[in-house]
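Entry for the shared binder. Reason: the reviewer on the internal report wants the predicted structure included alongside the sequence.
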Amino acid sequence: MKLKVLSEDFYGEKTENIYEAKKTLNNLGIRYEYLDENSKNDVYILENKVIFNRKGQITTKQIFELGKKTESIYKTPYLTMDFQINTIEFLKSEGETKLEYEIFSNGEFLNKLKIEFHEN
């Protein structure tokens, strides 16, 4: 299947990518697996949260849960950074999930992002 991933940040930068993905359903939710140029990606869309795992040149585990601040570590060959995620919006419908969230590091605002996952 094809998975379209759209993103937009606080500064107006937008991206749109389409990946060949594997979709798995179970009693907890949906799992999408796909490769991008930097990592193997697993996206888990559960009842009340999204978990985004990346392993490769970029390694991170991000948890998006509405109304909760979560901790994450972002690793690349050039830097390792601790940051916090504040999920503002979490909407899901058949074949589509939308997130809006803020990223902070050491209490300092870094960015506000929107990301969408669409089945194609």
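Summary line for the report: The radius of gyration is 14 Å.
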